[in-house]
Amino acid sequence: MKKVVYGLMINSGDADEMLWDHGIWETEEAANEYIENEMSTISGVWVGELKVNDAIPEVAEYDAEEMVECALCGIEYNPEDVNTHDYDEAVCINCEPGYKENMNIA
Predict the structure, then answer these.
(1) Out of the domains of life, which is the source (predicted)?
(2) Domain positions in the chain
(3) Cβ of 18: how many Cβ atoms within 10 Å?
(4) Which of 9, 68, 83, 85 is the most exposed place for a label (fewest CB within 10 A)?
(5) How do residues 2-35 score in pLDDT, each as one tens digit?
């Protein structure tokens, strides 16, 4: 489902560009009010319509049994964040650099 929001636009010479750092508004009136109140001394700025996709309604969730516990720090992580292939024990991405260093010293 597409949602319409409004942002501030300028022409940079080659194309119209949005001024992302000024934010977005749910109504065209609110964006125009911002231009009048905050940018009244700046010319060449107008309100443009933006169509964005709504967030996926189903939030990605991991079941407890899918989580993998790091053998070094004991914190449970998503399986993608734990290396279970290269070592004898599960090592998370945060502990891996130190674990590799200790393996090279031993």
Answers:
(1) Bacteria
(2) 2-53, 64-105
(3) 14
(4) 85
(5) 788 999 999 988 888 988 888 889 999 999 999 9
